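On to our target:
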Amino acid sequence: MIARRLKELRKERNWTQQKLAEKAGLSFNAITKIEQGAAEHPTLKTLLKLADTFGISLDALVGRK
């Protein structure tokens, strides 16, 4: 779920994986692994960085209603 949602949010903003990584303070590899589903359980710290970067809640990031 997080893989698809992250990719959707990134593409809505026309950001590359590299640009998202830079904005979030994460590695390119971290973004790639999450989007490919290789990192099925990213850390809370990583998820919070991503949510803050997109300006959304953690629930919105993970697709929870």
Observations:
- The two ends are 13 Å apart (CA to CA).
